[in-house]
Amino acid sequence: MDFSQLFSISGKTALVTGGSRGIGEMIAAGFLASGCKVYISSRKADVCEATAARLAREYGGECIALPADLSTVVGAQALAAELAKREQRLDILVNNAGASWGAPIDEFPENGWDKVMDTNVKGVFFLTQKLLPLLRVAGDADDPARVINIGSVDGLQSSQFDVFSYGASKAAVHHLTRFLAAHLTRENIICNAIAPGPFPTWMLSTGVGFGGATEDVDWESVGNANPRGRVGTAEDIAGLAIYLCSRAGAYVVGETICCDGGSVNTA
Q1: Is-catalytic flag, 166?
Q2: What SUPFAM superfamilies has UniProt attached to this entry (predicted)?
């Protein structure tokens, strides 16, 4: 047995949605540093392209921006078609693009519900569906293609914030992951989910009152409430994603794995 390449993902091609910032950017950076060719997608073309250029400079390799709105089936189809023009196979799909909405229960609007569900659940399913031809080509019995859906601890427990559609959507993502695994594993496409806890992202920043800023703000105060005493880092989330996409994770199927410093399981 040769364990020297157990965690290698070098030479693979990956698509990370919501890759222009936050957890998606962290995973994309880890993939690039590990020798992957990485496509990132987000709604805002200028931001997506700027992030792709910066990640390529910082970590080397190829990082290519493919902007898309994944809240619609048309957007998912367009992204899949654009990728198919460039690649004959896709080894890794990370469904990370997401949205949230906060409002008191008596005032929570329908558009806040629909926006979150469309992006976080419908987008995950239909992008995966549209990319199945490329994933099927990539996967084989020894090295299956990988799909990682980014859920949340808010899909496993109640949140302190009034994000009703977000929590429900992430619970749906976790269960959808099991459904996808049940249907795709024998096609050499294995699906898992990651449920992140607190990370220094724009989304969490808006929730804790930092106004969306991720630098030069008091993340230590947020981390102090976590059992590990800190918020997550790029190494934490990218490390788990790399594991799931490597030979080391090839027998892990249909799981939702917390990456949360213990906030769920030690509460």
Answers
A1: yes
A2: NAD(P)-binding Rossmann-fold domains
